[in-house]
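# nightly structure sweep
# worker-07 picked up a monomer target from the shared queue
# config: single-sequence mode, recycle default, output format = structure tokens
# input follows
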Amino acid sequence: MPRRPLVLLTTTLLLLVGVAPALADDPWTVPSPATITITGDGSGHGKGLSQYGAYGAARQGLTAQQILDFYYPGTHAGSAGGTITVLISGDRDADLVVEDRDGLEVRAVRSGKVFALTEKAARTWRVKQTGGKSLVAYRASGTSPWHTVRTISGDAELTAGGKPVTLRSPVGARAYRGALRSTHHDGRRVTVNVLPLEAYVRGVVPSEVAASRWPQQALRAQAVAARTYAAYERAHTANPDYDLCDTAACQAYGGATAEYPTSDAAVTATAHRVLTYQGGLAFAQFSASNGGYTVAGQFPYLPAQPDPYEGTSPDYYGWTATVTDAQIEQAYNIEQLTDLQINTRDGKGPRGGRVETVLLTTAKGDTYSVTGESFRRNLGLRSTLFEITDVQPG
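# output follows
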């Protein structure tokens, strides 16, 4: 989920005029070239449920409901179902290709007509779109020619009556429940998985946490959070082509291939359960680790508060990252960085709290203020709960 990809944000630069530092760290002189070491805690934005905190809470004996009550105070139980549409980000080439299997069918999205794909010689099937039509073809081997068996007006999708269909994409083979639809988004062909919400959550939970090691109550809390997040996104999207993506920019989703018995059990135990607030779906944000203190979100049920269930882990606490002066200069479109300073923190949690602003000073004497979140994203840091611990030439 909302652990967003690195984004170039040159437009976030603001020329600093008379800003008084508060909770400022000592400034660092930056030679050219320079290697800058950054140390921090936590992973992700820190809002809502902490996956590592839920793990710790479950190990201390808390139930899934108690975990959800702590991370989303003031929310209530609700129900959600229906279908959801998910962009399969690894399959954006010219066609949709799946492995043959029993029960395979193609459905014309526009008309709703369904046609069985029963060619005995077929090993793979393809939907290739051209001129507003979908050409459905098969081939008997990886080197044989494609044989077109049907032409469909508009988009088409492949399904096997609820049984998993294996997609072959540039990133490898992966099975998905529901239907695999070949459509267009922003002028390019994409693959969208259309499936029941419950089947989708089965592919999310083990993609977000280690289902083989996570306590059952933590898995159940994750299932409710993931289902709620998906239902909220579905209800609020303005995108006509799909509801959400399959990466951490939304929430990780691995299809039927990712499913695992313990996470399946958690999804079944919490079937259709979501979180609501004042009669509507809650925005159930979550991240890997809040570093010991949650971050306030945009709603009252996402407060900033100490997290007693977080702990110490080499994965989430005391992580280090190295960046160069050239990387910072490129990220913010500046020249000759000479000084670097964490200027303000929120004062909540370890290391003085999360970084709110960072000052960048250039050889020309210009000083710019960028947000801690912008600095994190542009430089690929795990969280905004960090400090600069060393600057070395070279």
